[in-house]
Here is the input.
Amino acid sequence: MQHFYVLRLKRWKRLSVIILFAFFTATFLWFERDGAFSLFDKNEPVALTKGNANESNIALTFNISWGEERLSDILNQLEENQIQATFFVSGEWAERHPDLVEQITDQEHELGMLGYRYKSYLDQEPEQVRKDLLQAKEVFRKLGYEDANLLRPPHGQFNKEIIELAEEMGFEVIHWNVNPNDWENPGTQKIIDFVMEETANGDIILLHASDSVKQTEDALKTILPGLKNKGFQFVPISELINQAHAESELIE
Here is the structure.
């Protein structure tokens, strides 16, 4: 009799694990549709994480929230390799460095925003987030970029409410799926190896151009020609979105 209860308990545990796994899979599943990846629950958009896996297009993105020493060298390398990237900048940084914002757009790179202050939206109330986004939007408008609608939430942290709020305000939320954590300065070769090994069709690569990043510039000397030699085509995020035809959906 004791053996029967133990056996029954084991079966119940297995069943519970299966049910639990199915629940979390339905809630946080990575979904592939038309080759494009996003997180989903129902039928509402969320952050674009990857473009069309059937196309060789990839997007190179840079975050900038402070400093001015690294950007020019990075822009020079992009120009030398004839690569268009997407730069996500905070409104506060853009306000302080309008000349650098102009340098980015003059070289035909795409401009996105990181909100106004680079502070996690998960640590703020919805109205605070709304205020931050409105402030960033106003800065971009004054600088002549009122059509900028690509948003990367600070630190890449967001939830369903933030996504809904951003979309309500006309933003397209952009995440990433290749991140070598270059801001930690792990070593030039480690950055190179990670990006070269992990990048695949449709990927969105996250790098940084703030002053704290000391190894990215040297890593790009290998990464940019290296990825082109592997057959990848660099495109701005907006083009990746159009080609992906991604149906992004919300997570709970």
Observations:
- The chain has a mean pLDDT of 84.
- The chain has one domain: 30-244.
